[in-house]
Amino acid sequence: MAMKWIEILTGSLEQKKQYKQTVARMDALPEPYKTAAKSMHRYFMYQGGVTDGDTLTQMFTDLVDLWERAAIDGTPVREIVGDDAVEFAEQFTLAYGGQRWIDKERARLTKAIDDAAKEQGS
Question: What is the pLDDT of residues 100-113, one digit of tens each?
Fold first, then answer.
């Protein structure tokens, strides 16, 4: 029972365990794949905004899988991300649905404008 209560406050302990394993796998990557993976990971933390733990865990697992495979195959970093690393990263995160932080603000903005328009009778 205490574990359920703790998870309500802190989030899934299993997801935290999976996340730590993913970070450990990322740290074990050879260069330059490690640098590329860690840079994308950092960008995802700022840009991705995914709030669903299962989706976020899967996204980071897939990221590490991608770079592990590239390292095994010897695929050049640019061959993976192309000329625009930001575009690649943003397209990568779009492949993962789930709730995002901005979704709440979009709904709030839409409701505020709708309410303002109703007050004007339009």
Answer: 667 778 888 889 99
